[in-house]
Amino acid sequence: MLLTATCTRMEVNEICKNLIIEENNFALIRGSTSHRSEIIFNVKERKEIRDQYITEIISIVNANLLGRIIIYCATHSSCEYLYNKLQESLNNISINYFHGGLCDNERETAMNNWKTNYTQIMIATSAFGMGINSSNVRVVIHVEVPMSMTSLIQEAGRAGRDGNTATHFIFYGKKDIRTNYSIIAEYRET
């Protein structure tokens, strides 16, 4: 049995091909789950000067300290930069970061700290996601526009899983397209 809430038809076909599952040997069950009325969506233009939008992120965090927060960044360097800035500005809050460039031990520690509710704010790339089902996430922030609508829906949907009101913020800017193209180009080279 394979379960997912957001797999596209193209992704289903690829999974079946890779697992050598014939089309008549599986059932695809779909429901309309993309509407999440408990999540309030906010779109904000990102200031091109880093410290200006980081100040705005700090304000969002300070206004939402009762729950946990996931902040998604497009790149490893963005995660680490934002982590350092938040560490400087926010006292007595457990902050961690997670991306594919961490060694296994670092990833495991970050994941365990999140799952045990030790970490209140996780700054991460899209590598942080599989197996994440925390009911007490009140805010998800995308610092840059994600690579796809599927990523946006999955990541924003990590908020409000307990059915209580949650908030999603997405910051957008002119550099996002260039950043996403760079990530795609880097991926194709590997």
From TrEMBL:
Residue ranges annotated for the Helicase C-terminal domain, each copy included: 53-190
Database matches in InterPro entries: Helicase_C-like, P-loop_NTPase
EC number per UniProt: 5.6.2.4
Reactions listed under catalytic activity: Couples ATP hydrolysis with the unwinding of duplex DNA by translocating in the 3'-5' direction
Database matches in Pfam families: Helicase_C (PF00271)
Gene Ontology CC, one term: nucleus
Gene Ontology molecular function, alphabetical: 3'-5' DNA helicase activity; four-way junction helicase activity
Recorded superkingdom: Eukaryota
GO biological process terms, semicolon-separated: double-strand break repair via homologous recombination
SUPFAM superfamilies in the record: P-loop containing nucleoside triphosphate hydrolases (SSF52540)
Any coiled-coil regions, as ranges: none
EC category name: isomerase
Family per record: Belongs to the helicase family. RecQ subfamily.
Designated name of the protein: DNA 3'-5' helicase
Lineage: Eukaryota, Fungi, Fungi incertae sedis, Mucoromycota, Glomeromycotina
